[in-house]
Write a structure and sequence with these properties.
Structural class: mainly beta
CATH topology: Porin
Strand content: 35-45%
Mean pLDDT: 81
Helix content: under 10%
Shape: globular
Low-confidence stretches: 1-57
Strand order of the largest sheet: 3-4-5-6-7-8-9-10-11-12-13-14-15-16
Amino acid sequence: MFRLLCLPGLLTLCAAFGCSSDRDVPSAPVASATPASPATETASNTGGSSAPVETTSETVAGKLNLDRENIGFKTGSGERLYEIKFKDDGAKLVDPDEQEIARFNVDEQKVKIKLPDESVAAYVVVKDGEFQIRDESQKVELFELKGQSDGDWKLKDGDDKVLAVIKKRDYGYEIEDSADNSLFKSKLKGDKRSLRNAKDETVLYSKDDISPLSVACLGLEQIESLPVRAGLAAAVLLYAK
């Protein structure tokens, strides 16, 4: 199983990218429902005023598009964190120094997550309207992310235990644990996609073209490995509509 990655490490980028050989970095808070088109809604901010925000509902479509712009992420203070760069056969995750953290090789309905040492961390398999995270043998299901009829998404482990729920909100999504405790919020406002913690502090953000659901995947700390979370986020971005 993967090493536990601690969220506070995000605030110290030097520590984040100079550690273990598999290049895991600290946790970065780095499908079947009825299709719905993007909508614009109004949500209240913390000051009580309202501002227009965009929100989308997403479902597994299975239509792959690798012709995308790269997606860069920054910390709440604006420092470079990591970037997803798209290639002909998938994508790769790199740190601020352009050092590879992981590669995501796409083959039909499957994303293979490889580490710089060429070892396979996991596979993300798009099957039966859900995203299955399997081990390197592809025989053991480690996690399952599945869309619900109400627009929510549930993350379960290999024993079918609910670990987290990504709940649809007017601003994007909210991640709650199995006890309904709020963990993170994935917010879309204007051209800014942000992941905020329970204190409403920005953990990371991007102004590039990535869906709020993909951003929410980066906050699924129940999946301990950043490469696997980022691989899931990439798969959701590529396959969910």
